[in-house]
User: Fold this.
Amino acid sequence: MRTQAVLVFGVISLAAASAAHALSVDELVAKNAAARGGLDKVQAIKSLKLEGKLRFGGSLDLGYLQYNKAPDSVRTEATVQGLTQVQAWDGKEAWQISPFQGRKDPERLSADDAKALADDAYISGVLIDATAKGSKVEYLGTEDIDGTQAHKLKVTLKSGNIEYVYLDPDHFLEIRTVAQRKVRGAESESISDYGDYEEVNGVYFPFSIATHSKDGGGDVQVTIEKAQANESIDAALFAFPSKPAK
Assistant:
């Protein structure tokens, strides 16, 4: 009985020690920043241009461009057969050009759609400097993601939208995000898987992003082929055009 008691006490002590060393939100975010290349290097990137391909529905390939400019501007372009779909957020308002739907003039987006663009505008992502961005981060333990016990973080964004971020337990890079948003009164959820991290100006970014929506919006695969950081990008690129597109 004495031996069993000592054994049980040892197991309890080990469990307590493990709990005491459980990673906190701050530690996980710090490890993520270090894995990305270091907080200073991440914060030093003030602009980013990504070029590659977008595959929609597993069959339609489009040219893809994404521009980001600090603090929170973003513009994406998808081109096929001479037509270019544009969506942009300049930090204050969002707009789009939708030639595939027969609308070649720019139009402002709804408040809900604007929130979705604003959520994705930060070069550093949603975890780094979350408090400064008006977000709240909670650690929810681990969850199995395709056989990996990933760290799960819940990020309540300034917009009110929710994003769950899953970090690889060994490398602490994002391997999946689940974005929950409300669009025109309806709940929307999209899942994005990240891979093929490549270094750009000392910072690692995912060059492969696969996204699918639970509401049947279609599968989208973005493959980055070229990236440039800290190049000059005119702020006018993100602003609502003063003249209709021709």
